[in-house]
Structures are given as structure tokens and as C-alpha cells.
Amino acid sequence: MIVISVVHQKGGVGKSTISQALATGLDGQTRIYDADHQGTTSRWVERRQEDGVDKPELAVGRIEQLPDLISQAENEGVNWFIIDTPPEHSGEVNLRTALSVADFAVMPTRAGANDVQVLPKTMRIARQIGVPFSVVMNEYDGRRSLHKQVLADLEDMATRNGQTVLRPLRSLAAHQDSTYAAQTAIEYAPSSDAARDMILLTREVTQITRGEQ
Ligand SMILES: Nc1ncnc2c1ncn2[C@@H]1O[C@H](COP(=O)(O)OP(=O)(O)OP(=O)(O)O)[C@@H](O)[C@H]1O
Ligand SMILES: [Mg+2]
Known about the structure:
With about 210 residues, this protein is an alpha/beta fold. It has a single domain (about 1-205), classed as Rossmann fold (3-Layer(aba) Sandwich). It has nine helices and seven strands; from the N terminus they run βαβαβαβαβαβαβααα. It has helices at about 15-25, 40-50, 65-75, 90-100, 115-130, 145-160, 175-180, 185-190, 195-210, and strands spanning about 1-5, 30-35, 55-60, 80-85, 105-110, 135, 165. It has a seven-stranded parallel beta sheet with strand order 3-2-4-1-5-6-7, sandwiched between helices. β5, α5 and β6 (about 135) form a beta-alpha-beta unit. The longest helix is centred in the middle third of the chain and has 17 residues, at about 115-130. Adenosine-5'-triphosphate binds near residues 11, 17, 36, 86 and 172.
């Protein structure tokens, strides 16, 4: 089983959107844990269950129980355990806990100065803990020179540190619209660009975590 934590100390950068997309899009049995008291992802899974959709499963428990929830999932044959985390104002402890149990972390960021400036701090914590990670730029607009510059800077930083930057995700309505139907873009609009971006992200994460890159 592979444990993936989706982290960034800033709010609203796409942690839940990406956690949910990975938990539905990765091959095999998946289980998701919502470390955020806002409960966005828990509610999203519960709504899916009401609709008769059983992927992903929901891991329920307090954050201190995370190691036990992970062992239990492993014993039950789960292939991927995804952890959606809260932004910093909920306390750095959750971030550290989520990183310390992870095999790999995905760090979404947007191009905004506040989002990008906080990222090195999140990266430092991941490095201290020793968990490999990849950054992904969310709501990327390749026509904007600022976005291209931020992406290039992230790639530089990643190269220097032996990490990777995943293909960026564009800003596309299907990511948001799909949540109203308790789905992901891949399910809601399978032939959309949003679905395509998420399929590529899922594929990249699979390759990296299986050591194929
Ligand atoms: N690539 C995208 N294109 C369009 N909308 C997006 C994209 N990514 C995320 N969103 C939307 O942006 C909002 C914030 O995303 P999300 O909830 O995933 O962020 P978060 O990091 O989990 O936020 P929080 O820190 O509050 O938990 C949501 O409404 C989501 O649907
Ligand atoms: Mg969230």
C-alpha cells in the first residue's frame, strides 16, 4: 500500500480537489482520510456513498489514530491511502503527522505570491521528515508570463533538490462543478480538459510512487 499526503500550508490551493481526484482515479482499492475539520472530503465521500458509489472508502478516526488506520487499511488490502490535509491555521501538527506517515506527498500551489512564498516552508518540513514529494501548480494559465515564470522557478528549485514538478493543472470549471455532484472532473466530464489534466496527474503520481520515473 502507498500512502500519499496532499499538503500545503495555504488554504484553497486545491488540496481537496487533488486528494479526491487521486482517490477516485488511482487504480485499485483506495481509502481517503480527511484531516481537515472543515470535513469537505468526508462529506464528499458520504454523498457518494448515498449515491451508491463505493470508491474511495473513507477512513474515519482522530488524527492521532492515523498510524492505526493506515495499518488497518494495509491489512484489508487497500492499495492507496490518500490523506487530505487542512491549511496552516488548523495547526502545523496535522501537517507533520500527515507527512510522517506518508510514502509520498503532493504539494499543490497556485501562482499567487502568498501561496508560492509559503511553499518552501512546507517543503522544509517534508525534507526534515524525509518524505519525497512533488509540487503541482494549480489553476495554471500558460498564457500568463507570471505563471510561466513561477513554474520555471519551481522546476529550478525542484531540480536542485532532486524533486519533480508535476504537469500543471489548468483553471477549469469542471473541477468545481463536479464537486456539486460529489464527483471528480474525470467522472463528471470525462472528455473535458479538466479530466485530461487529472488523468495525467494520476498517471504521473502512479509512475513516481512505483519508481518508474
Ligand atoms: N484547477 C482548478 N480549476 C478550477 N477550480 C479549481 C481548481 N482547483 C481547485 N478549484 C476550486 O477551488 C476551490 C478550492 O479548492 P480546494 O477546496 O481543493 O482547495 P483546498 O486547498 O483543499 O482548500 P482548503 O485549504 O480550504 O481545504 C474549490 O472550489 C475547487 O473546486
Ligand atoms: Mg481542502
